Amino acid sequence: MTKALIVGGGVAGPVAAMALQRAGIDSTVYERYPRAATDIGAFLTFAVNGMDALRAIDANTVVTGLGFPTPTLVFRSGTGKVLGAIPLGGSLADGTVTHTIKRAELYGALQDEATRRGVAVEYGRTFVSAEPLPGGRVRALFADGSMADGDLLIGADGIRSAVRQVIDPGAPKPRSLPVLNVGGYVPSGQVSVPVEPGTFEMMFGKRCFFAYTLNGNGEIWWFANPPRRQQPTAEEVDAITDAQWRSELRDLLSVDNSPATAIIEATPGEIRAWPTLDLPEVPVWHRDSMIVIGDAAHATSPASGQGASMAIEDAVILAKCLRDQPDTATACSVYETLRRTRVQRIVAAGAKSSNSKAVGPVGRVIRDAMLPMFLRKMAKGGDKSAAVMFDHHIDWDAAISVR
Ligand SMILES: Cc1cc2nc3c(=O)[nH]c(=O)nc-3n(C[C@H](O)[C@H](O)[C@H](O)COP(=O)(O)OP(=O)(O)OC[C@H]3O[C@@H](n4cnc5c(N)ncnc54)[C@H](O)[C@@H]3O)c2cc1C
């Protein structure tokens, strides 16, 4: 194959384009929004395995200047008692550790690097449908009436993927998990917080999970996960006012021994929120020269801290499969064989983590009693799921083979 059409210029899309270029395959990225305009205000944990995957295509330097290192998580109960501390994936051979990065900055850096490498990224292009063409080719149709033809259509269009629906009209819809995500920033010097550099403080409060960290300039970055048995829609979440958030979070967090309420009071500007969604199993990932990768195929709860890293791994491994396998259909099948077990395991771990933040009073007592033992096991490297998440290495030069 020589030409790929990539729908989505978030994380997986630009990385797929750069990796395909290395594999000698031309591509165009079609993104519905203007450059890096989405989700201003959100930040994410960018794990070492994502860094490793970027390194496979020499794109890791693009993100190393972004955000700040957060290699350690410290967990506390609502009383302030330390339940345990765990490394967030250790470090790569050159000392690179997990970072916390603003999502829009990550998007912008990846898009810019793809453009710098000569990839065509077209903004304001909304994919609506696709149809197979003779000879195994595929045609993408856009909302403005335009179309584009290629040898493979890659849906890197996120959790509400339109490409996924074209591949399988019966594909599952995103699932709601019982917490919301609310977050913000506090400028330096407003609140004094007892946190070591490089540490993310995570509190299983009596009524609400709350986390915060300090960036290199003394700014506090925080998020909370207020429980919601009935998940509102994205529109309903957007309709909750800033004053309502402040009032709800104050009520939920005032019962705990933590700086949470002071942090929220000191947060200037609007407090933003997102529903918590995932996609545990998408049965069909590819058909007729179309395939989904990243969140379009397997979105995970933010609690796993792995969505962006898995999207990058997907993009690089798909490019390797297309480089090494004899034809596109075989490459897509081999790709699925290599990826499905890993990503579904991480999605399951993310859901478990989100669910544990929404337990009732009895569940909370059990959770807080079990956590120190579980965290000790993780810290010693004895927890297999944590090791599976982070200890993933991609060697670009190694040929893909499936035994
Ligand atoms: C609140 C929150 C916190 C998170 N925290 C973390 C974290 O700590 N760590 C982590 O690793 N991950 C985190 N994530 C998840 C992470 O953001 C995603 O897993 C990651 O962005 C997935 O990348 P992607 O490229 O697959 O999809 P996306 O980043 O969603 O990109 C999809 C792109 O496709 C575009 N698009 C969609 N439809 C169309 C269309 N029809 N036509 C053209 N373009 C289209 C979109 O505009 C978007 O740019 C979090 C997510 C949320 C919501």
UniProtKB/TrEMBL annotation:
Classification via InterPro entries: FAD-bd, FAD-dep_Monooxygenase_BioMet, FAD/NAD-bd_sf
Keyword tags: Monooxygenase, Oxidoreductase
Entry keyword Oxidoreductase: yes
Gene Ontology terms for molecular function: FAD binding; monooxygenase activity
Domain FAD-binding per the UniProt entry, residue ranges: 2-347
UniProt entry tagged with the keyword Oxidoreductase: yes
Domain of life: Bacteria
PANTHER family named in the record: MONOOXYGENASE (PTHR13789), PUTATIVE (AFU_ORTHOLOGUE AFUA_6G14510)-RELATED (PTHR13789:SF309)
UniProt-recorded name of the protein: FAD-dependent monooxygenase
Species: Antrihabitans stalagmiti
Phylogenetic lineage: Bacteria, Bacillati, Actinomycetota, Actinomycetes, Mycobacteriales
